[in-house]
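Table S2 (continued). Query chain:
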Amino acid sequence: MTPTPPSIPSDSRPLPLLGEAALRDFIGAGAVTRLEAVGRTGGFDLRVHMGATEATLGNARGGVRLFASLDALTALLKRLEHPRFEVDASNYVSGRLRSAARKGPSTQAPPEKAVAKPGAKSKARSQDWRKHA
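Corresponding output:
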């Protein structure tokens, strides 16, 4: 059974979103005529063309899935066995996908480590040995 492409949106509405599983099904059915990486601030989204119908790859939270680099997008498309795509970088602006204001444990610098003095371990071992002797 061939999947049915989403309906064609009007110019005033955002493009319908496709999940990765649906994209895999459309690729497998031969319904995808063209894939296009479209540059945005901080990355690229993926436009899926199926004849006159167009959709955007979505994420699990119901938004547009953004790729930080063309390498990341290429990896996905190779995995889906459709590695050919076009690139429209006319609106691409380099930057981060995630806000710098959203600092969590992974974005903070690690605390400074104490630098061990040369020979400190061997001195500690010899002192430890004397305690047990």
